[in-house]
Amino acid sequence: MGRVNLIVAALLMLSAISLVTSRYQSRQLFVELGRDQAQARDLETNWRRLQLDRAELARNARVDAIARDGLKMISIVPDRTLYMNQAPVSANGGAQ
Predict the structure, then answer these.
(1) Distance between CA 9 and CA 3 in Å, rounded?
(2) This prediction's pTM
(3) How far apart are CA 55 and CA 68, in angstroms?
(4) Could you report the per-residue pLDDT of 15-48, keeping only the tens digit for each?
(5) Tell me, what's the pLDDT at 41?
(6) Residue 88 lies in a domain
(7) In a domain, 71, yes or no
């Protein structure tokens, strides 16, 4: 009878240790989940900010202002446009 009690006590101890271990792992996973969710929120916020930055940088008015002010470019006007006429290329590759 004492031997059976000893085996049951050992199984009970193993079960208790297993329960404590699984609860500890569960808490660790919960903490990691919270960290990952916070990181996902941060990444989503950064993604939205980058999309806004990209939209702002690609605005036509901004590009035009940088071209005019920074690069000293001017708009095309017909009286300052040069047209070049090229002789048509023959079907045999231009060699005659």
Answers:
(1) 10
(2) 0.53
(3) 20
(4) 999 999 999 999 999 999 999 999 999 999 999 9
(5) 98
(6) no
(7) yes
Residue 86 lies in a domain: no
Contact of 68 with 74, CB cutoff 8 Å: yes
Q: Is the pLDDT of residue 80 over 90?
A: no
- DSSP-derived secondary structure letter, 78: G
In whole angstroms, give the CA distance from residue 96 to residue 59.
51
pLDDT of residue 17: 97
Joined tokens for residue 18: 């297993």
Would you say 96 and 90 are in contact if contact means Cβ atoms under 8 Å apart?
yes
DSSP string, 29-75: HHHHHHHHHHHHHHHHHHHHHHHHHHHHHT-HHHHHHIIIIIS----
Domain count, the chain: 1
Decide: 56 and 62 in contact? Cβ < 8 Å.
yes
Please name the residue that has the structure tokens 């006007």. 77
Write out the residue range of the structural domain in which residue 65 sits: 2-75
CA distance 62 to 56: 8
Residue 37, domain member (yes or no): yes
